[in-house]
Input
Amino acid sequence: MLLRLDGVSRSFPARTLFAGVDLTVNAGDRVGIVGANGAGKTSLLRIAAGLDAPDAGRVVTPKQMRRGFLQQEIDPGREHSVREEAASALAHLDALEAEIAGLEREIERFGRDGCEVPADLAERWDRTQAAFTFADGFGREARVERVLAGLGIDTEAAGRPLSAFSGGWLMRVELAKLLLATPDVLLLDEPTNHLDLPSIEWFEETLAGFRGAVLLVSHDRAFLRRHVNRVAELDGGRFWVYAGGWDRYLEQKALRREQLEAAKRQQDRAVAETERFIERFRYKASKAKQVQSRVKALGKLDRVELPGESRARMRLKLPEPVRAGEVVLRLEDVHKSYGETRVYAGVSLELHRGERVALVGPNGAGKSTLLRLVAGVLAPDAGECALGHKVSVGFYAQHQLEVLDPSATVLDELAQTARTDDVPRLRAHLGAFLFSGDDVEKRVSVLSGGEKARLALAKLLLHPVNFLVLDEPTNHLDVAAREVLEEALSAYAGTLLFISHDRAFIDALATRVLDVRAGRLESHIGNYSDYRRRRGEATADGVQSVQDARAPGDAKQARMEARERARAESRERTRNRRRLGTLEREIETLEEELESLDRRLADPEVWRDGDAVRDIEARRTEARAHLDADYAEWEALGDTVEP
Output
């Protein structure tokens, strides 16, 4: 056991977030905490991290157990470099290296004096040197560079001061520190929020090899599906733990709801019969005792409640737009630069009616710039960006939430985009986005991130448009709201061009993926999973270059890059095969150890010695935790070794 929550509760004067939460986290566990926005997921994670005290209950951890918590609030004013900040996670290795140097100076002094080195001094040097070597102290600089590079921070950026970076990049630095520190338990609050897709994939590979436990909050379904082996759900103040991964959680949750619905129907029938009896014989003296007995029974009855029953579900149906022409968008030889930084130099693109095109690629590649060009927010430096016949654009910007007027009410903010004939339906429209009753009079300044995102979507979708341009529309939305948005966009009759780091969202919607890298666009037919399978195959069916083909060196460079990607993937598969072999040997050894320990526990003589039994059980628990972690890694690697 690495971490245990016993009866943990957290309340505010107006409401109880959760009560009686029990959870045990062992080595190798990957526990995903899910629930609606505002359910208390971050509060529970902070309590588990030891940063906040619970109102009731306790958090139990073994001595020397190290917790690593991904901070959400980071001081942006620090002037030392990103590299120095990341390396601070390995300060204990600097201390060991300094201790080794001091011991070597003492040993050298004894040698100069012709004296024999004391045994305790030599032993201390051996012990400290072994600890330093075991912790890979000699390779710590390379580890720092490798982790930073994996998170998208190159060598040049690593040397810049922290004050030069936005909050999203600072979050990456904090994540780098956690990965370098290798705590026993990682506690992560939305770890993929500020990562681009390549960094998410790198982070997932790193997390798959982490031997400790992970407790995380995430709305990224692809991430949850790949990594968690238990799901803990906060729902209406109650806490439910489901064994198995994300898909198993969905199955169990649906089954539990069916069972509860059946129990509720049965209970409702019994209650109705009791109420009819009470009403029928309320004033009959001969039945007074029986009536009172049933009234008391109803008062004491523990009513069956359905999970999520008190929480409304966002209702979203996009209005039918005017039919556009066959070609919705055409970019011809478009150039765009910011000062000396060239983003695009002659890019071309064509979108057709009904397409659903996702832009992917690393942060800074120009995805948002492309959307702003398409939406008409930016003008190209050269070339043509033209919309097709009868095309009307709705643009959801990445920082849409920041342009909301904080002093306005929800209703007033929506009214800013309304026409005269829209006014009678504004409240009903807001109701579809879960703003009902007095909620429409709330000031924007007091809304949560999820509420602001729903308001921004309500403004965008007030009027029908046939071309939606969306930059990270799922940011700040919980899983349920993301699924509702997916359903609505799946039924949308217009054309979509969007950016998202939610791979499940892309898979559900995209009919084409545009890979944006180094000012170039490469088109891949299909969704994100199809794109990943085809990536690295320069001549795969369904893949074509949409970049200007007038530069003959570009095609050669693309082929070289594709070959290099293919070689890199081959090398990765080889590494994974070797790791699988190692894991299989470890699994065999651990299973033999468990069998041996079980045989010892089956021996009646062992139980005469309580200390021996406790020692065997502790060793068995540790071996079982390592075995479970090895099996989880073995399963994660299993699908990666096929060419």
